[in-house]
Amino acid sequence: MRKYSNEITPSSDGERVEVAGWVHDKRKLGGLVFLIIRDRTGLIQITLPKKFIPPKVFELTRNLSKESVISVVGKVQKEDKAPNGYEIIPDSIEILSRSATPLLLDPTGKVDANLDTRLDNRVMDLRRSEITAIFKIRAAALSQAREFLGNSGFIEVTTPSIISTSSEGGTELFPVSYFEEEAFLAQSPQLYKQMMMGTGLDRVFETAKYFRAEEHDTIWHLNEVSAIDCELAFIKDERDVMKIIEGLVVAMINVVREKCKRELEILNCEIPEPKTPFPMLKYDDALAKLEDCGMKVPFGEDLSSEAEKRLGEVMREEGHDLYFITKYPLEIKPFYTMPDAEEGIYSNAFDMEYKGREIVSGSQRVHEHDLLVERIKEKGLVPENFKSYLSGFKFGMPPHGGFGLGIERFLVLLLGLPNIREAVLFPRDRKRLEP
RNA sequence: GCCCUGGUGGUGUAGCGUGGCCUAUCAUACGGGACUGUCACUCCCGUGACUCGGGUUCAAAUCCCGACCAGGGCGCCA
After folding, report:
1. CA atoms of A151 and A432, how far apart (whole Å)
2. Across A233-237, A277-281, A377-381, least confident range
3. Is strand B within 7 Å of residue A113 (CB)?
4. A361 is near strand B: CB distance < 7 Å
5. pLDDT at residue A166, rounded to an integer
6. Integer Cα distance of A421 and A119 in angstroms
């Protein structure tokens, strides 16, 4: 019986319907009151002419606070003067929940609020269509990612988030107390997904959480991140991994372009069709390009954010928003990264950049046990701490590689969001643990 | 971890440099009233704020110190 606002049209004229939602706005003109009700799909106008509706129903609107939840039963009336070409003349109104006043922020968006205030009152904030639009798009992209990976032979897995001390290194971990032992929140499922390559499942992915205890406090970093993490076996080299990424990213962008038109409109956002194939720019060539525009990055250093952005501008001028940077120096990549077959100072590691920002990082991995042990030692880590991981490599491990794609970062760049916190329902950053 | 910036009603802001004219601006929200076609309705009346602690001074929203909270950048990374 209950209908959503988008299920009613002017041609429903005369129909008796029930609608329910939040009181978005109330406009009183003496003997005529307009209630604007908001539900998941949009807004609907309830019109109350004093003369034509029961006095009790009219009286209800007197102290009906904004954002209260009500249910309305009434007759649809075609009306050119109404916002959607129709309105509802109520027979009855039931107040399901009264909202307190004053509101902590304004869901109609008439009055601005700082991000901090908005996040403190995230439930109220999420009543705004331009905020929920982000999460509808996020859901569409994620669901498409699952479908694409499923169709490409990947099996979804779930690996532990609570891990013991042994870790891939490179970032600070959050300690947790685990009965009588100390444990940590996983920085990524990296080692587990690699272990899965020794099982015969061949291709796995995980919609993973990364927990990173770095004290960064920027519009580009979070301490709890979501990612699409993949690993695939029997590859020739990292190019097989990049092929998957290209397909995945194109599928995700296109599904948003095609199925989220309304949300993109709400966000006032236009997404161009992704151009394939994504260029593969060697690290050395990236350095050369940067030097051409007066930015010298010494070999063996990772690109600074400034250099990365500059490169993004150069690539955009060449018509590319999406591209890979390949063949990073082995030195600056983690121990599990496969060295280049010909020149050992390079590696089979790459990043995928979107508008001058890194959103994917991946590589072909070392699958040979002894080399892996050697690489762990070279990185100053202790092979004994990686016992269970390493044992997977002793008894038959196919060549493999994989990547992690940051979902929030992807959304920031796709939609041009001003802050990565906008892409998470309840962000966790240096200072925020609530709500 | 390092560096920079800021904290004024429920919300968003003006004022702070050059202390006094601040009994603190404006908008919106909130309470009351008028209004039968609003759609940021309009109009009238009303309530509501200088983060906290210390200092300088005849005098502090304004200057200084500290705490707390927040925003941003770097490194690191998704």
Report:
1. 38
2. A377-381
3. yes
4. yes
5. 64
6. 9
